[in-house]
Design goal:
Layout lengths: L3 H10 L2 E3 L9 E6 L12 E9 L23 E7 L11 E4 L27 E7 L13 H8 L14 H9 L14
Parallel strand pairs: 3-4, 4-6
Antiparallel strand pairs: 1-2, 2-3, 5-6
Length: 191
Amino acid sequence: MFSWECATELLKRGAAMQTYDNQQNQDLGMALHNGDLDSAIDIDRTGLCQVQVKNSVKSERVAPNPEAAGKCPNTCPILSIVMQLGVDEEYHGPLVEIDTTTIQTDTPAGNTRSSTSSDPTDIKRCHYSSVLYGCVAATYSCVGGHAAIYATLLRTPALFHNYSRDKYPDFLTAAHELSPNMNKDGIFWTN
């Protein structure tokens, strides 16, 4: 699993880390340096960016855990990005959701009057979370007019879309039962 110590060492090498498959909160971990070019790279100046990539057709509710890499040793920002790439044209919600600490109750900034309302080391004060839906130009400007190509590459097709006996419910049920870690909708889960 991606840890703060690991993040600091990877930052020194200019690297990121792909975590194990089916992690609950992160598929990719990147270290962020919170300082200027002259400041040392150490654990006190290391922030974290954790990325979760989903490619199912229906959006999944994901609540990234800011402490997935362990107890935060500093007050540097933690950025969580959830990319729901498989969400299709039927999705009618916002394409980008940003979730941070609300200004009325608290603020991640340390030099404001409202910053005294909670402990400055509270992890929620420095956690920023964004959820991006679909793989279209409105979400990612780099996609441009190639959304259909990206969709073909990134979206997971229906699990048994080429199964020749999909018209027979008994055969389809038996095929689903072949995998002990799959629910009836063809979605994998882990212990």
